[in-house]
Amino acid sequence: MSGSTHKLSILEKVGYAFGDASANFVWRGALAYLAIFYTDTLGLNAVHVAVLILWVRLTDGVTDIIMGMIADRTETRFGKFRPWIMWSAPALALFMILCFTTPDLGYTGKLIWAYVTYIGLTLAYTINNVPYSALMGVMTPSVEERGSLSGYRFAGAFAGGLLVSVGTPYLVEFFGKGDESLGYQYTMYVFASLIVIFCTVTYFTTQERVTPPKVERPPFSTEILNILFNLTILCLPLLGAVIFLQFQTLISGVFFAATFAVTFFGARYIMNSPEEGRTSTQQELIDLLQNKPWLILLCVGFIFMIYNSVRYAVIAYYFTYFADDPLLTAKYFGALLMVSFVTALAVPYLNRFITKKNLFILSFALGSILNCVIYFFEPDQITEIFIVGCLAEIFAAIMPVLYFSMLGDTADYSQWKHGRRPTGLIYSAGSFVQKAGGGFATAIVLLVLASYGYDADIESTIEASIPGMRLLMSWVPAAFGVVGLAVMFIYPLTNDKMAQIERELAA
């Protein structure tokens, strides 16, 4: 099978898209309401919620890497990745319901409940979505077809997010009859059922075709210990950032700076270790640390996730308090996700005229400019907010489509350069930085609101927090967009380079 001739059927592309539609009931849909659910319905403090989300997202990132390793080592007659999508669907559905359940407990009990159920949700999401993402890398060896498949995937993702984002406020009102706690729980019953159905569709309509090279591996327990040791060294800066955001003291700032030094020298130690003494896990990590396109793409993924997630996390607050109309939240989400759905399908066609790298740069630049414009609108300029927001969303929606397609390109690069293809590890790390970026974004929103004194039970603090909400809808994401633009300039995999790699791998 030649990488340049293999074509996926429309049925298989649509079936694959159903998997991300189900995942985005959680990721782009329910989690968009989780922060405001925690602060306004469950009654948790904004700073406590920020810390909760940060800690859970970072620990979840470690499980992403471990899940990628497990998926890479899974051998069944149904494939490496497909079975996990089916096996994990019931757990994902269950924890989505539990996350939006309000127990009759005191404040501490509710905070513990939030930790337990949110950890359960993110773990179930990891078990489901890491193999799902890696599945894209083995369904076809064609770079062009992966780009098309990524477009279908995110069309499904945005459709799932659209259904949840638009439907949630109306279903909460319908089921709750004034009781938000009950309304949220019954609403999640509906979406949980759809998660199981959609994952089943993906399982039965997709195939795995690309077989990675065989690699001799030590016992899995040994590999887990190796990966945990090495990941602890590599992920220290993220831990330092969380501690600094939580305490914001000079000591925490010094600790944050020290983590970078430990990671720098630790990475050098790993890469300079004797080749004959390396385990397969260490060798895969070294391959990735030497995979410049992958490292740059991880940075870009972290940045664009903050860029996108800050905008989404503040929308419910922005329209509830700045525009004084909570139902505009659902309408705005709906408008953005309809734009995203169409954009995702259009990206493969845009790539025929603009390279992935240049399209990414253009998206960061124009999206950031449009976000800045939103700052200058007043509460009665709803039409203008919707128009500019939807224009900005065109460029925001392009980013994840390109990102996951380009992760597949870096897997090709790894196999071409090193003769090894840790697809699950490549995609799980990509998922990790997205989750970390999303966690930091939500924490940024909540910490900015907390800095303005936000308390949902005190009207005066809400009014005082509105300037912060306006900044979070405009200048804050735009600043991250400018940083992402600068990093994307040094990404080295051009169309010509990928064509060479594809030809040589096919041969």
What keyword list fits this structure?
mainly alpha; Growth Hormone, Chain: A
Structure description:
The longest helix is centred in the last third of the chain and has 37 residues, at 382-418. This protein is 81% helix and 0% strand. The chain is an all-alpha fold and 507 residues long. It has helices at residues 10-41, 46-73, 82-99, 107-139, 143-176, 180-205, 220-234, 236-247, 250-271, 280-289, 292-322, 327-350, 356-374, 382-418, 423-451, 459-472, 475-488, 495-506. Helix 1 packs across helix 11 (292-322) and helix 5 (143-176) packs antiparallel against helix 6 (180-205). The model has no long low-confidence stretch (mean pLDDT 85). The chain has a single domain (10-208, 279-506), classed as Up-down Bundle (Growth Hormone, Chain: A).
